[in-house]
């Protein structure tokens, strides 16, 4: 895939397609109904006209043929096609597929030239039919681009140059950046260099399957089924059942054999354990990414690292002697933790030894937040210091970049795909940056001052907690608020919310009145409102591997671990108290 030429991405799981006929039924069964006697043909004709539990019989049958082919059951697929009289696709469609997968670019363009535009398909037509909105010229560009790259891969530079000048340039006359990039590929000294620069895996890789997948999206699904269509539909069924399950606590995907439901008794709603090692208010807790440890911080200048699930103290870090610890962040590989202090320092710690690896240069104002890049080699700090409100650092403590915009940063969130960086200022604005360009893409103005932000694991949604006692779910691509969560109370202090549970099905938040509130993420329906801390519940963290466990902390200097009734009963008592030493 040449992602950095035109932004195309493989669709419908094309990377997983292998060349054994799994892509949209590469094998075309030769079925025309002529082998059946009159009685059998009449039976088939009657069956084809009826519905299958309200569904179109032809659609269901073709989906089954494709799925059987995908799974390698070719004889069974041929048998279903023969018995039903339905073909997976017409000879023309099969020929187009074969041409693309075999690299017969002239034949592929010839078949594409004869494709019927959307809305003009005649009854009984068996050729290619373009989907609504499909652009034939763009499809030609994709074919010729693949042809150009394969010629370069074979080091046939003169032929590749002819394709670029005579075939691609006329179609991309206004796309100067694309033509310039393709021209630069002529300078690649080897196939490996070409593949790296073009983000492309070669003719013998999956590039032709990726191309076919993209082309198939431009062809009417009535003649060329989208790849693995039945599998996609079944996945949608599972997602729908999960989204409708109010108490979803199962990490395993739902079975297709029966409707999915989780019992309320399995939902974490009781205190499993109390931890009281802190001597002051506890402001934040975070589980490590692998779920084997937890870190906590607050008003006292120490950070505690706990083992999970025993919740014994592993390390007590004397993190910031001159002030409170505002924020803690685990590195993606869990080998390090960064602590952010009101003493205007940020420090990197080794989580195995408890040793301080590096103390960053002192800021002019408190350091409020930090996010790591996925390679665990660099990170970004947020600070009240407007001159260094957003800074990227390496592990040596050297500044890599300072963002030019001047605003006070009170919280940070980085999307897992590293596309979005969101900074929360001290007023009511959220600054959304493009990580690659480091430029601000847009701002979001919220009605009440936000107190915390976080981004979902699919990188699609931003969760914003606000001082007016409302949390909002905002779709980052559209900038629209798609859900609101009410029932907790806000105030002048930081109250943190988070995603959590199996498949991130829930939104959880602390509350100014000491409760912890949980909502169903998709519907916004309140699930639980539990008395947690007095006078205030400051922060929450859901265990990343155990959907039946989350932690809360508050102004009462306590951390509470929550689970379901069954797990609490298995301990033989309603609450276990721990001082962190056993």
Can you give me a brief rundown of this structure?
This protein is an alpha+beta fold and 582 residues long.
Helix/strand layout:
Layout: H1 3-6, H2 38-49, E1 51-52, E2 55-56, H3 57-70, H4 74-84, H5 91-102, H6 105-113, H7 136-153, H8 157-168, H9 176-184, H10 191-198, H11 207-216, H12 229-244, E3 270-275, E4 282-287, E5 293-298, E6 303-307, E7 313-317, E8 325-330, E9 336-341, E10 346-350, E11 356-359, E12 367-372, E13 378-383, E14 390-394, E15 399-402, E16 411-414, E17 420-424, E18 429-434, E19 440-445, E20 450-455, E21 461-466, E22 470-475, E23 480-486, E24 497-500, E25 506-509, E26 515-520, E27 526-531, E28 537-542, E29 550-554, E30 559-563, H13 565-570, E31 576-578
Parallel strand pairs: 3-31
Antiparallel strand pairs: 1-2, 3-30, 4-5, 5-6, 6-7, 8-9, 9-10, 10-11, 12-13, 13-14, 14-15, 16-17, 17-18, 18-19, 20-21, 21-22, 22-23, 24-25, 25-26, 26-27, 28-29, 29-30
């Amino acid at each position: 895939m040449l992602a950095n030429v035109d932004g195309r991405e493989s669709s419908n799981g094309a990377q997983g397609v292998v060349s054994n006929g799994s892509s949209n039924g590469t094998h075309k069964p030769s079925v025309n109904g002529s082998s059946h006697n009159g009685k059998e043909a009449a039976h088939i004709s009657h069956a084809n006209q009826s519905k299958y539990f309200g569904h179109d019989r032809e659609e269901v049958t073709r989906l089954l043929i494709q799925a059987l082919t995908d799974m390698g059951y070719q004889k069974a697929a041929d048998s279903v096609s023969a018995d039903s009289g339905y073909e997976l696709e017409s000879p023309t469609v099969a020929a187009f597929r074969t041409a693309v997968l075999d690299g017969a670019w002239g034949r592929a363009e010839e078949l594409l030239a004869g494709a019927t535009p959307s809305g003009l398909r005649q009854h009984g037509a068996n050729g290619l039919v373009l989907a609504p909105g499909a652009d034939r010229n763009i499809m030609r560009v994709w074919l010729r681009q693949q042809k150009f790259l394969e010629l370069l891969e074979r080091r046939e530079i003169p032929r590749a140059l002819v394709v670029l000048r005579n075939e691609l340039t006329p179609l991309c006359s206004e796309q100067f950046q694309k033509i310039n990039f393709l021209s630069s590929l002529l300078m690649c000294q080897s196939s490996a260099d070409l593949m790296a620069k073009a983000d492309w895996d070669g003719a013998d890789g999956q590039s032709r399957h990726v191309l076919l997948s993209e082309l198939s999206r431009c062809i009417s699904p009535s003649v060329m089924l989208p790849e693995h269509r039945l599998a996609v539909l079944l996945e949608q069924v599972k997602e729908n059942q999960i989204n409708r399950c109010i108490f979803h606590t199962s990490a395993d995907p739902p079975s297709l054999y029966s409707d999915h439901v989780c019992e309320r008794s399995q939902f974490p709603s009781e205190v499993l354990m109390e931890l009281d090692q802190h001597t002051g208010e506890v402001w934040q807790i975070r589980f490590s990414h692998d779920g084997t440890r937890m870190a906590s911080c607050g008003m006292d200048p120490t950070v505690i690292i706990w083992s999970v699930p025993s919740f014994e103290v592993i390390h007590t870090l004397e993190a910031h002697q001159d002030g409170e610890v505002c924020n803690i962040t685990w590195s993606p590989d869990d080998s390090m933790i960064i602590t952010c202090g009101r003493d205007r320092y940020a420090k990197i710690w080794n989580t195995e030894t408890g040793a301080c690896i590096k103390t960053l240069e002192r800021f002019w104002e408190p350091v409020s937040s930090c996010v790591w890049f996925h390679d665990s080699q660099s990170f970004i700090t947020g600070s009240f210091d407007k001159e260094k409100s957003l800074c990227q650092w390496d592990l040596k403590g050297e500044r890599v970049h300072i963002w030019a915009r001047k605003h006070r940063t009170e919280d940070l969130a980085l999307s897992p795909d590293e596309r979005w960086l969101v900074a929360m200022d001290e007023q009511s604005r959220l600054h959304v940056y493009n990580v690659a360009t480091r430029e601000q893409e847009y701002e979001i103005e919220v009605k009440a001052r936000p107190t915390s932000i976080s981004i979902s694991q699919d990188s699609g949604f931003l969760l914003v907690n606000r001082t007016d006692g409302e949390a909002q779910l905002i779709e980052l691509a559209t900038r629209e608020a798609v859900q609101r969560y009410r029932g907790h109370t806000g105030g002048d202090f930081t109250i943190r919310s988070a995603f959590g549970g199996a498949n991130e099905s829930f939104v959880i938040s602390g509350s100014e009145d000491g409760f912890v509130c949980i909502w169903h993420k998709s519907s916004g329906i309140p699930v639980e409102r539990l008395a947690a801390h007095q006078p205030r519940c400051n922060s929450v963290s859901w265990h990343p591997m155990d959907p039946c466990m989350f932690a809360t902390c508050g102004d009462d200097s306590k951390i509470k671990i929550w689970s379901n009734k069954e797990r609490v009963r298995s301990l033989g008592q309603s609450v276990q108290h721990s001082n962190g030493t056993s």
